[in-house]
Amino acid sequence: MMDPHVIAGIRAVTEALAPGAGGAPERLLLANKGSRALDALEQRARARGVPVERVSTSELGRVSRGLRHQGAIALAAPYPYVDLEDLLSAADAPLLVALDSITDPHNLGAIVRSSVAFGVDGLVLPKRRAVGVTPAVTRVSTGATAHARIAQVTNLSRALTSLAKAGLSIVGLAGEGEITLDALPDAPRGRVLVVGSEGKGLGRLVRERCDLLARIDLPGPVASLNASVAAAIAIRECSRSRARQSSASRSTP
């Protein structure tokens, strides 16, 4: 029997209980000592038919395994990954984010939150040599994983080939990219933004699957950015590019 997915923290649990989130948690654990925030969570959980149990702080600490829980933990089924094909049907011209061997849960959590905030239709993660959606990732994303559509694939370069065959433009984020992100060409059938690992960037095979490489201009003295910061900037630019393209297509007679 698989361990439940632990969702820790008031904000993360609130997102898990939101009507638009994935499947409702199976159980909610709240601290014995009440507060307005915890009482509101209990009401929301009961309205969704989620069992609620008031427990000691020590019990919450044991279940959270070191995660900061703020007196609230939701226990859910293992994270519901989707199939790669499901991401293609998410929109007429989907915007996807593929991550090449991101291993830091803090980076993944931050990237998931940025992706959800900017309307990304799905994320693609490799199953090996990369972090998946763990309780720590959910905590860092402050519950955004509940609103994300994430596919795990055995081979990322092969998955990118499939997405390219479906008509999506594959754009790799790299400091030596030939164009800047704000100059991306239109992608009428959708785009995949590929972000490399924290240390090595894009792997060779993944890089070869990219139609083009794009860079973030850094006019200041700092030559590079943290993976999650760079991803957030790139995701915003890709989201803006899609919005401009959509607006232009609507205004064309």
Structural features, described:
The protein is of the alpha/beta class. The protein folds into two domains: 72 residues, 60s Ribosomal Protein L30, Chain: A; 168 residues, 3-Layer(aba) Sandwich (Alpha/beta knot). 36% of the residues lie in helices and 19% in strands. It is built from nine helices and eleven strands. Strands 7-6-5-10-8-11-9 form a seven-stranded parallel β-sheet, sandwiched between helices. Helix 6 links the parallel strand 6 and strand 7. Helix 5 packs parallel to helix 9. It starts with a strand and ends with a helix. The relative contact order is 0.15. The model has no long low-confidence stretch (mean pLDDT 91).
Structural class, by secondary structure, is alpha/beta
Q: Give Rg in angstroms.
A: 20 Å
What general form does the structure show? Answer: elongated
The total number of structural domains is 2
Number of helices: 9
> What's the CATH first level of the largest domain?
Alpha Beta
Provide a compact summary of the structure.
The chain has 253 residues and is α/β, with parallel strands linked by helices. The chain has helices at 10-16, 36-47, 57-64, 84-88, 105-117, 135-140, 156-165, 204-208, 227-251; strands at 5-8, 27-31, 52-55, 72-76, 95-99, 122-126, 150-153, 169-173, 179-180, 191-195, 212-215.
